[in-house]
Amino acid sequence: MTISIGFESTAHTFGVAIVNEKCEVLANEKHTHTTESGGLIPRELAEHHEKYALPVLLAALEKSKKKLSDIDVYAFSQGPGIGPALKFGAYVCRALAIEQKKPLLGVNHGVGHIEIGKALTGAKDPLTVYASGGNTQIIGLDRGRYRVFGETLDVGVGNLLDSFGRSLSIGFPAGPKIDEKYFLGKNLISLPYSVKGMDLVFSGLLTAAEQKIGKVDENDLCFSLMHTAFAELTEVTERALAHTGKKEVLLTGGVAASRALQQMMKTMCDERGVDFFVPPAWACGDSGLLPAWLGLVEYNAGIRMALSETTVNQRQRVDEIDVVW
Ligand code: ATP
Ligand code: FE2
């Protein structure tokens, strides 16, 4: 059975995972750089990854009871992400693959989120709602590529929650705390609802909510901010379903852990007779599992890369990848 190792380093997480063809996770180790402010400084990310790469790799090997020579495919997240962080993961993976004389694949981080989500939930051809700190996109397979049907034009929805949390001084990441407050809020406060065509803009919502801090009940404000942002996301998802005719929704990315978002999406899906899937929380965020599994899928589909094709690409989009598997 083919075994793949994946290296994830697009942003704050350095992760190494080892997975087999049945999508059995033999190891999934990671370390995440955290800051009080939540802001990501490229040089600090690279330093973090440099510090944790070896311990994380050794922990993954030990957990999986595999040696580097047992592994058939070496994969890493090629983009999108933050340059110095991406490069570090790529260097590590390349060096090991060359030393072991094994195939090396650079894979797309967003496609990784989709494919691991499909593999773990059984979704076949979903419309994927990828909602994380840095990204918010509604994606579906169409004519051989994952097309983006709608996306944020400014910040990711998780970033909106974290920025608002910073203004409330409730610590980082704020998403889980705001998600708890959502269920304590009783009154919906009117805030700017901004859907542009199929795209989303969150900055006006953030500013308006920040201006109400101290003037209205905090739980009501958290409820209203989240409700407004998620209603926008749900509306665009519903329209993309109508457009594509897809019968499944897959919610992934770190914000997929939100019970509020899950409830709203599920209600919409139930009303439309669409199946709703959320991978387990450990598989929604960034980890080595994304490149490990996608690398294996691509390898089994016959994809091979020359070393020169494995340069990182900070702005690589999901719709640049030919889905031949
Ligand atoms: P990417 O690189 O894909 O953009 P990321 O760096 O944002 O990912 P993730 O782990 O995918 O990392 O997502 C983290 C985000 O998820 C944070 O913004 C955090 O506040 C949010 N989040 C985590 N749990 C919850 C929750 N229960 N409810 C709402 N938001 C949550
Ligand atoms: Fe991610």
What is the distance, rounded to the nearest whole angstrom, between the alpha carbons of the first and last residues?
18 Å
Mean pLDDT, to the nearest integer, reads 97
Tell me what the CATH architecture of the largest domain is: 2-Layer Sandwich
Q: What structural class do helix, strand and pairing data support?
A: alpha/beta
Q: State the strand order across the main sheet.
A: 3-2-1-4-5
| Strand element count | 12
Rg to the nearest angstrom? 20 Å
Under CATH, the topology of the largest domain is which?
Nucleotidyltransferase, domain 5
Give the topology string: H per helix, E per strand. EEEHEHEHEEEHHEEHHEHEH
Low-pLDDT segments, ≥5 res: none
Hetero groups in this structure are:
adenosine-5'-triphosphate, fe (ii) ion
Helix count equals 9
Give the count of structural domains.
2
User: What amount of the residues lies in strands?
Assistant: 15-25%
CATH class of the largest domain: Alpha Beta
CATH superfamily of the largest domain: ATPase, nucleotide binding domain
What's the story with the biggest beta sheet? Answer: 5 strands, mixed
